Each structure stands twice: as C-alpha cells, then as structure tokens.
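Sequence in, structure out. Go.
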Amino acid sequence: MLISIVGPRYSGKSTIESYLVANKAFASLRLTSGSSSTGSIIDAPDLQEDTMRSAWAQSPDLAHQELSQFPIPPNSGVFKQHLSFLSLSPVTQHVAWSEDSSKPLSFSSPAEMLDYVTLNWRDNFVTVDLSTRDLLEKFIRRPFFMLLNVDAPVLIRYSRSQEHERRSLEEFIREDDEIFFGNSKNNGEIALRSLHDLIDININNDFCQISELHAHVDGLNLLDPQHLRPSWDAYFMVIILQSIIRT
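Output:
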C-alpha cells in the first residue's frame, strides 16, 4: 500500500506520516527536491512548497525509467533478474533494507518512486511529497494507492503556526487561500481544491493532543483493504443500483 497525504499547512500531514512509520511499519518516501519535518502535531513551514508544486505539475508522463539502487523494504525477499508482471521491466538488484530504519527512501523523480512502489506493492509506504492532480492521477491508477486528506479549522492552524513563524492572520489566510484555490499564475491547476474527487479518506485534525490524533488514525484502520476496494456485498449493490437506474 502507498498512502499519499495531502492538506494545507499546519494540518498535521507530517505528524500522521511519522506515526505510520513509527507504529505501523510504513516506510517514508521522499522526492529529493523537497523535504518535511516530522514529530509534531503540525507541519513546519515549507518555504519551497509553491516551487515544488509547479515543478511536479510540469513533470513529464511517468514513463518507465531504470530503477536506482534504493534499499528494499522488509518482506520483499531477494529478487532475480526477471520480467515483473507489474512494472513490465527488468527488476534490478537492491541492498537489503533495515526494518528498524526510519530514514526515508529518497527518489530523484516521481517516475522512480512509482516504479519502486509498484515493484514492492505488498509493502506499506507513506509520502507527503505528492501534491498535484496531474501527478496523483498517475499514482492513483495503482490499486494499492490511497489518497488521505488532513485538514483543520483555519484558526487552529493559525494558532499552531505561531510557534514557528510570526505573521498576521490576514497574511496566513491569504496564503492559505492560494494553496487551496490556486492563483492566476497556475489557474488553480495545483490547488488542493482540485483534488477533492480523488480523496479516499478525510481527517479533521482539530485535536488538542497528539495522542488524540493517533487514536483517531488507529480507529480508521488504514490497512483495511476495503478502503481501497469495496466488499463483495457493496460491489454487487452498486451493480444492482446501476441496473435499476438504467432501466
């Protein structure tokens, strides 16, 4: 499974990512053009956010590229040279990955990340570095991909931001609106608003304590396969409803 976490600043994206890595045996994935801080209920300010989003929005189609030598996650075994039925490309040799390691796996391009998680689709990964619709649409084609949106009321996020930066409420809201709605330069193409129909799970992080957020994430049971595909009962009910509508 690959969980991509999106949301506005100071909503708690990195906190959820850190929790999944520390407590649910997820491996964190990073694109080398960006970085995130972890370990608090808020996200530290990302000064390069707009630049990275613009670059990723212009990213070429994720054609296959040769996999770099990334460490392989646990339970993946030792691979021989063969044709993978998932990636349709030769599998490369990798260095064994330490299960106790919390160091993120870094990739130089979205294509390399996509190839890697496709090859290792039985393992669990999480990232906060996928944030544009064009990019997410390429990942969402994979049946093991989940898009998780985390948000919080503006005043709560503004209060959290004051621990890291000093700015007026008006400035914070202006920047927040630009992140959510986009601006005239990109015509809203990289706005969070454009992702609403791709989201699988929404989290409202208005919690006062990190432990409350952790308990909420536990209650969602993100590893439940029904988050990615419906149960047989739900599947057949959809077919029945569609048949009724068409008749």
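Check: The CA atoms of residues 16 and 181 lie 24 Å apart. The mean pLDDT is 75.
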